[in-house]
Amino acid sequence: MMQFMLLFSRQGKLRLQKWYVAHPDKIKKKITRELIATILARKPKMCSFLEWKDLKIVYKRYASLYFCCAIEQNDNELLTLEIIHRYVELLDKYFGSVCELDIIFNFEKAYFILDELLLGGEIQETSKKNVLKAIAAQDLLQEEETPQGFFEDHGLG
Amino acid sequence: MPAVRGDGMRGLAVFISDIRNCKSKEAEIKRINKELANIRSKFKGDKTLDGYQKKKYVCKLLFIFLLGHDIDFGQMEAVNLLSSNKYSEKQIGYLFISVLVNTNSDLIKLIIQSIKNDLSSRNPIHVNLAMQCIANIGSADMAEAFGYDIPKLLVSGDTMDVVKQSAALCLLRLFRTSQEIIPGGEWTSRIVHLLNDQHLGVVTAAASLIDALVKRNPEEYKACISLAVSRLSRIVTASYTDLQDYTYYFVPAPWLSVKLLRLLQNYTPPEDPGVRGRLNECLEIILNKAQEPPKSKKVQHSNAKNAVLFEAISLIIHNDSEPNLLVRACNQLGQFLSNRETNLRYLALESMCLLATSEFSHEAVKKHQEVVILSMKMEKDVSVRQQAVDLLYAMCDKSNAEEIVQEMLNYLETADYSIREEMVLKVAILAEKYASDYTWYVDVILNLIRIAGDYVSEEVWYRVIQIVINRDDVQGYAAKTVFEALQAPACHENMVKVGGYILGEFGNLIAGDQRSAPSVQFQLLHSKYHLCSPMTRALLLSTYVKFVNLFPEVKSTVQDVFRQHSNLRSADAELQQRASEYLQLSILVSTDVLATVLEEMPSFPERESSILAVLKKKKPGRIPENEIRERKSPAPPSSYHQNSHATAHVNDNKNSSADLLGLSTPPASNTGVLVDVLGDLYNSTPAPAAQTTYNPKKFICKNNGVLFENDLIQIGVKCEFRQNLGRLGLFYGNKTSYPLHNFVTALSNPSDWISKMNIQLKPVEPVLEAGAQIQQTVNAECVEDYTDAPSISIGFVYNNVPQKLSVKLPLTLNKFFEPTEMNGESFFARWKNLGSTSQKSQKIFQASSPIDNDSARTKLLGFGMQLLDGIDPNPDNFVCAGIIHTQTQQIGCLLRLEPNKQAQMYRLTVRSSKESVSMEICELLADQF
């Protein structure tokens, strides 16, 4: 079972965090800090896996963003790399050549997509088509709802 | 700003842009505070907000939280959003709640109600949203509330596939929270049969759930074995077009395959020969596919394919029943060892570790020894090198031990600091386990100390001593070898310890050779003495007294050493005690008694190596793979572990039986003799710890010792001072057989001290395990002079009963003395200068014990001032000088103590440039006589 997933930039800025195991905020911050520092210190050709406490860390860099997952001893490292890749593919498809800024400005969407792919730390749906279908269905529901807040959007937000 | 998708909240996008444009951290915080104030006023305002606004503000709060700021409001607004009839608002509400979980929130009832409503919605998208929330939070309340609905959704015939998928994982999450949630009976078979579902997404999700259920109750879910095998067989024989979108880069359903292979690792190989045959067929197909040329050059293809392969190998190793498959697996992994991909080399090394423990494949793994040694030496990535070390450890047996140990020793010289300690442990274990010739073992350990002395832990050097003591065939060799090793111009302190101990026991075995005659041995050891820590010096003193017994010809030289000022009057209580006791022992006692007391050490009881336990502790994630068979070998008494340097000093009485250092580890039969001998010499031998020992005044003139002790806890202290700085090590030892919980320490009345002293307590672990000891460092900086000393309060829970103690720290003003040397002339000049009444302080008092010049000297030395001899015309009087260092000023201080033996009275005069200081110094010292 995946314990958490972190997305952070080359500058060490956390862009997205998803925790499948409950920790107090203080611990989360500590873990995040430690892992970001560890991973950013590693060289490009190094192995994508490392042991960290009693967990296995799997990470991969896509352009300016690092994707980092913590999994348990029984979990499969290589396939975790491919979970990351599938998530990147989904983001890419949804946003159309996704970049770091898309994730910053639409973090809630990034969460919704992740929730379709993984649930409770386990893979829920591996088919790209099915996930995109589910997200499209959500977007459709939204569009049917009358857009509001016109005034807000034009200066009063 | 990129285009905003979906319903886009412009206000949010503008805010995010603002934050990104902030030039500094301060600007960012300012902008955030402005926004928080704005949102707060909107939430509190009279105007009711519409759903969109609420959603936008909740989203902004979420963003602020994700930036790392604390958010303490907005929960209610988020909960309101849950009951919105607009999906987008609901979704943001759920997101906020999932991210800022607070399961004990008062709002949990409201949240559960909203989830209930959404679960019963006809729209599967709403149902899934509700289940995602349950899976994200997964609290016990939720398990209770939805323990019925979710299983029903999972197996009901008219549930849509997407909902089933969510339900399976949602149930898994609730099951992890509370195990009772899964209904048994007919549900079992319905859940198991999800493995047969048409929809691969459902099967994948269900496989995770079933894996967890099987772990709890393998027997009940046994039917899943044959279902899993047939599903797997259908997947591995499918062509990649069969499974459509569940094929990932030409690999059919890799996630599901891995899940099924993992599921089968919960059981022994299938009993049914048909099922077993099919499973082996699947495994063979997977191994065959690994040899086929890749269908794509993309790394995703090879990763997915190899993920399945590694999981299949893992199942083969788990089953450990098909020699043919095991050897094939080993060859496959062997190919990966020289693959281009670092990831594959890493995983191959890791899997091979497991293969090495199977009797069928152990030999096959050994064929790759050379490549693995190369990996250890040449890999660029330390985590891969670490795996190589682990594998070498695992593949080591009698036939290759010498070579592997030698290679590991060679590598150790340049190994990364991060893995040295563990490597030292591994080498030590292998050397012991596979030593057919113990001279080899001794050589290996001494090499370890030579190459990586700093990483050789106590367990390792204790162990070599135990083994030498237990095996008389190696004692002469050990003595000769340590003697040679000690001749190196710079040798590690651990070498001095081992050398000292072994020569003290067996130096006589090499004394016949003129090159290692007794006096040569003694001089060699003593040449290191001054470079060593007090702990090692204490050990050497024991060695010296053993020499007195072994070699009468060095007796007088040794006695001179005991008599040396730096030993007999050492500031270190342990050294002082050993020096004086050993000296008296050598003077007073007949050769017969001496020979009995200082007899060779008896054998240690034979037990499992404690080094192995250390290694296990270091690697909680996995068990050390070189499985040690239940072979009997000597081990130290179990309490070694807790017996850190400091306790060896601090509580000599208590741990004497476990202290390898102490001469006080006597042959069992001789215990009485030793105690008697010393008892006669010193009737003041400390009595066994009373109920509560606590005498803070004792620490005015000394820096180390037991500060506090009662039935539950012992607090030892060691301090060092330099100028106006002090560092205290507090050692908390749990004397009970239960852990002490909620262990906290804090400075008492910190406000009283704030202007006098900067005191910093380093944090301590909240749990003090049974029999364990933890250390806390306290740093103190004297800002200006003060009276008395600060106290700390210590709280913990023992057996559910809270305990509280207050202990005064040995931080009296005199600790910041720097001794000052001066001649009579300048002393009297200064003495006269400090003549005004505001600079003087005097006390005349009755002696509390008979006046004794020697003990008074010791106390004054411990007090911290320079004792100036030959200045006072009356030789019985004491004169001292020192400077007190504070951050703000330095205060010179002179002292005169005049004993009057007839009257058993003292007169103490202190003069300093500051009245408060004179008074306090006088006050502190007067209590000591």
Automatic annotation (TrEMBL), chain A:
Lineage: Eukaryota, Metazoa, Ecdysozoa, Arthropoda, Hexapoda
Alphabetized Pfam families for the sequence: Clat_adaptor_s
A single GO BP: intracellular protein transport
Cellular localization per UniProt: Cytoplasmic vesicle membrane; Golgi apparatus; Membrane, Clathrin-coated pit
Subunit record text: Adaptor protein complex 1 (AP-1) is a heterotetramer composed of two large adaptins (gamma-type subunit AP1G1 and beta-type subunit AP1B1), a medium adaptin (mu-type subunit AP1M1 or AP1M2) and a small adaptin (sigma-type subunit AP1S1 or AP1S2 or AP1S3).
InterPro entries cross-referenced by the UniProt entry: AP1_sigma, AP_complex_ssu, AP_mu_sigma_su, Clathrin_sm-chain_CS, Longin-like_dom_sf
Name recorded for this polypeptide: AP complex subunit sigma
Native source species: Bemisia tabaci (Sweetpotato whitefly)
Membrane-protein topology: Peripheral membrane protein
GO cellular component, one term: AP-1 adaptor complex
SUPFAM superfamilies: SNARE-like (SSF64356)
GO molecular function: clathrin adaptor activity
From TrEMBL, chain B:
Chief location category: membrane
GO cellular component, one term: AP-2 adaptor complex
Coiled coil: none
Biased composition (Basic and acidic residues): 622-633
Gene Ontology molecular function, alphabetical: clathrin adaptor activity
Keywords linked to the UniProt accession: Cell membrane, Coated pit, Endocytosis, Membrane, Protein transport, Transport
Region feature Disordered, mapped onto this chain: 622-663
InterPro entries attached to this UniProt entry: Adaptor_Complx_Large_Subunit, AP2_complex_asu, ARM-like, ARM-type_fold, Clathrin/coatomer_adapt-like_N, Clathrin_a-adaptin_app_sub_C, Clathrin_a/b/g-adaptin_app_Ig, Clathrin_app_Ig-like_sf
Residue span, Clathrin adaptor alpha/beta/gamma-adaptin appendage Ig-like subdomain domain: 697-810
Membrane topology (UniProt): Peripheral membrane protein
GO BP terms in the entry: clathrin-dependent endocytosis; intracellular protein transport
The family this protein is said to belong to: Belongs to the adaptor complexes large subunit family.
Oligomer status and interactors: Adaptor protein complex 2 (AP-2) is a heterotetramer composed of two large adaptins (alpha-type and beta-type subunits), a medium adaptin (mu-type subunit AP50) and a small adaptin (sigma-type subunit AP17).
Name of protein: AP-2 complex subunit alpha
Organism: Bemisia tabaci (Sweetpotato whitefly)
